[in-house]
What we know:
The chain has helices at residues 3-31, 33-62, 69-99, 106-121, and strands spanning 128-132, 136-138, 143-147. It is mainly alpha-helical. It has one domain. A hairpin with a 4-residue loop joins strand 2 (136-138) and strand 3 (143-147).
Amino acid sequence: MTSGSALSLRVRDVRDQVMRVKEALDAMADVQDALYVRVQGRLGDLVRQSETMIADVETLLAAGDKDGQAQVKLREARRAAAMLFRESFAFVGGSLSRNARLDDGFCELADKLLDSLDAASQLNWRGLTVLAETSFYGEAAEVIRLKYPQLSIW
């Protein structure tokens, strides 16, 4: 196997992973439309960015990649895809846990608090909160992870 064909396989693997994420997000749009609306723009941007970067690598490979930039561009595409995977996973897992009411409505309450702060300050907040192992704010999709089982807005 040549290094070019190995690189092509890695590019195809990343493209397939991005496609599976798109399918999962489409399925979640049907299940949790009200939540998906809050993050669909940013997640859609991450999907398009990943797809564009992968297409750039494929273009370099098709042209023969004479200067060896395909490997560098693939690393960048994988980093962008990793951000997409993290934010999508947080959204999908969080949406399902909210749908099952594992949070007893706590995340919905936290969203309403953030929405009211947004209305007062005009921050253009459209993210959402989900349960997670640790508290964390994912800027890419504006998904705030609230530490579970320690349920606290602060």
